[in-house]
Amino acid sequence: MKLDESVKAASLTPTAELLQDAGQRALAYVQSVHDRPVNVSTQALQGLNAFRHSLPDAGLDAREVLRRLDEAGSPATVATTGGRYFGLVIGGALPATIAANWLTTAWDQNACFRWTSPIAATLEDVALRWIGDLFGLPDDIGGAFVTGASMANFAALAAARHALLSRLGWDVEAKGLYGAPELRVVVSKETHVTVSKALSMLGLGRERVIVVPTDHQGRMRVSELPELDEQTIVCIQAGNVNTGDFDPAREICRLARKAGAWVHVDGAFGLWALANRQIDTLTDGFAEADSWATDGHKWLNVPYDNGIVLVRRAATLRAAMSLNAAYLAEGDATEREPSHYTPESSRRARGVDIWAALLNLGRDGVAALVERTCRYAGMFAQGLEASGYEILNHVALNQVLVSFGTPEMTRAVINRLQAEGICWCGGTVWQGRVAMRISVSSWATTDADVQTSLRAMIRAAETCAP
Ligand SMILES: *Cc1c(COP(=O)(O)O)cnc(C)c1O
Q1: Domain spanning 102-358 has what CATH number?
Q2: Whose Cα sits closest to atom 13 in ligand 1?
Q3: Which pLDDT tens digit goes with each residue over 91-140?
Q4: Which of 77, 259, 289, 438 could pair with 263 in a Cys bridge, judged by C-beta atoms 3.0 to 4.6 Å apart?
Q5: Where are the domains of the chain?
Q6: CATH 2.170.150.20 holds for 364-464
Q7: Keywords on this record (predicted)?
């Protein structure tokens, strides 16, 4: 076959037919995901061998490509969107966001500049304003849509580095860190690994930090904070991945403000609690920080590749992330140019997914999602405790830590539960104790899912009992 004939053969199916096929397959997946096992069967794992062949010379018809993806691929997915996946802090994907994401993919917009995609830039503006409003943040915040909280932590800490060093007369973007005044970074013992990674990428050093001890809930002990000054960045947390608890932001922000230090919040999932005014004992003071990192793809339940960075003054983030120094000389632009706020240049229009979730849920819907998932976490804790198992954390949010007795016993229960596939929970070690962690973060989880999963947990524990 000639080269161009071979290429033609690869596009036999008309686009309309192909997209309808994709729609039907996706619908079938979404409709069945709730009732299938959460884990991946051995058979499905073996089925992945179908993909392990060499690259063919001649391309395949697009419909055949899709058929292969669905037939061997769909069964090998972990059913994280089904409502009974409680591992890590995962969340599902609201139907409105899947649909908006599809249409956006068809647009194939480059969200780099306003002129490469006016719609992407506009919806980013709108979504940022809505998020700021939802969290009760100041009006002049700047922000950007990045891949996840890892990159949001990176971008926010780059802004912090810029702000502190420029005040000391050092242009870190131009000159780098060699010869710069030294910055101190304060973290807690419970700081997320992605904050450490961001510090390493920024030349601030993973290990060059002051580590503040934490209490029984993993909260920073304010009394053990070092003296703060204008050369210090303090990294605090909204939502400990184990206990769900928050650092005492009010007091830390007060001390930092007085000293001229910068406070950065890693709120990958927990920051969304700011949308629910009923849990303001936890969220108190977080709006006083200088920068925030959060995820859309966890508690807000939008598809993956959706993180958000927010910085108190837009100009600070822009100075740290701008594509070129010349742009800065132009002074304040009237319109936000997306590429000047992110580590990336070309990227997908990920702000659309978040805009869709917020419009679909509304202010009350976000608060209700937070309330419901926290209530379910409480139900898990109560149910397990009533059956005689020990809850290791005060369930302040949506995370539950349970011990089924000895470390071996707890591990055995986790393994059994995972193999059975009715629900899925992971293991963790909390303050030296082996625990099973239950994270309730999906919009799709129902009362019935909680009851079914609770029964499965108790059954697994009884079966594993010596
Ligand atoms: C998940 C998480 C992160 C990292 O977020 P990604 O979206 O995986 O990059 C950072 N901090 C906390 C507290 C998290 O839960």
Answers
A1: 3.40.640.10
A2: 268
A3: 999 999 999 999 999 999 999 999 999 999 999 999 999 999 999 999 88
A4: 289
A5: 102-358, 364-464
A6: no
A7: Decarboxylase, Lyase, Pyridoxal phosphate
